[in-house]
Amino acid sequence: MKNITIIASESDNGFDYCTTEFNGEIEETGYTLYHYYDQTEKISRLTAGGNYRSLWANENEIEVYDDDRGTVEDYYDLMDIGYETGVEHIYTYINGEWMVTNRDQDGTYKPFINLQEFFAGQPFHR
Q: How many beta carbons lie within 10 A of that of residue 63, not counting itself?
């Protein structure tokens, strides 16, 4: 698998998405998205921005390496892109919540899980 992560949010046309080369692990990328990208405007700017080298809590620190925007009709299209490009983690902001899927040992995407449930009761450090 490549070390690329897809991050998407609902838009009028389906889903806007970006990619990042940053490790997609839930404890890292999921933590940053859930705790720091919790405002619709900030999420929209992130997912409409193209492709990034990294993901940081402060959006001004993010380095863009390709500003081509991506839009797909539904999250199944995101999974197709993931299969085609070897992406392990896909994050979606849908219905006001962050969700994530990653691949199992067979290379199939698992059902999406809610980051709020994943991080419930865990400490948050700013």
A: 10
